[in-house]
Design goal:
The chain has 229 residues and is mainly alpha-helical. The chain starts with a helix and ends in a 5-residue tail after the last helix.
Length: 229
């Protein structure tokens, strides 16, 4: 079965009805986005998606993935891509969150190529799949940690944010070490974020890690130790 075009149409129509053209330019400027905004804030978008996804239930994995990708690829406004990410994480389809979805999320990461898309996909989609299927997913993320694409690398670094005691320290270490000397702001910031988040669970490990990695950028180090006395 192909994409559910009725669902996609309902999303687009709903966003158009809730659009605030006065807010759209500022939203676009803040996100430094080449794609325009409708001017729909997250609460209004969330309410719309709750309504649409209750009405349009996708019957199988194929229709789910093709609908997410169609909504993403054919988006004319940034909120339509946010809606695609919302759809991808809807609780009704949680049973399909497994390694077979990694190619879909990889496309969203690489073609989205900006933090607002990538961080949600990395932490809320890839991260849970990693924790449920470590044997299959860890090798993928180890490859991404050294990939030419910086957003795959950022995903490998931050995908365990919020994992708490379930953090795979070996994976975190490899991802950070593969990128600690990179000059890219988003990688440096991501490294600091990942370490700062893990410091909530194991502050001593993070302190030792930072001490053992003098090559970390000042930004990464500052962010990592931000909440540690």
């Amino acid at each position: 079965m192909g994409a559910d075009h009725a669902l996609i149409s309902a999303v687009r129509t709903g966003l158009a009805e809730r659009a605030d053209p006065a807010k759209a330019p500022a939203m676009q400027a803040y996100m430094k986005s080449g794609m325009p905004f409708r001017g729909v804030a997250k609460p209004a978008r969330s309410a719309l998606m709750k309504e649409v996804l209750a009405t349009h239930v996708l019957p199988d994995r194929v229709s789910f993935s093709t609908t997410v990708l169609a909504l993403w690829r054919e988006a004319a406004y940034r909120e339509e891509r946010y809606a695609a990410i919302d759809l991808s994480g809807h609780r009704v389809y949680r049973r399909w969150q497994d390694p077979d979805l990694l190619p879909l999320y990889d496309e969203l990461i690489v073609t989205g190529a900006w933090w607002d898309y990538v961080d949600e996909v990395a932490i809320r989609r890839v991260g849970p799949i990693l924790r449920a299927h470590r044997g299959e997913v860890t090798p993928v993320l180890l490859r991404w940690a050294s990939d030419a694409d910086r957003w795959r690398r950022r995903t490998a670094v931050i995908c365990q944010v919020t994992a708490k005691a379930e953090v795979d320290r070996d994976l975190l270490t490899t991802a950070v070490e593969a990128n600690e000397s990179d000059q890219d702001f988003f990688l440096r910031k991501g490294i600091g974020w990942a370490l700062r988040d893990h410091a909530r669970t194991d502050p001593d490990w993070v302190r030792s890690f930072v001490d053992d990695h003098p090559g970390l950028s000042p930004l990464s180090t500052r962010e990592a130790l931000k909440n540690l006395a």
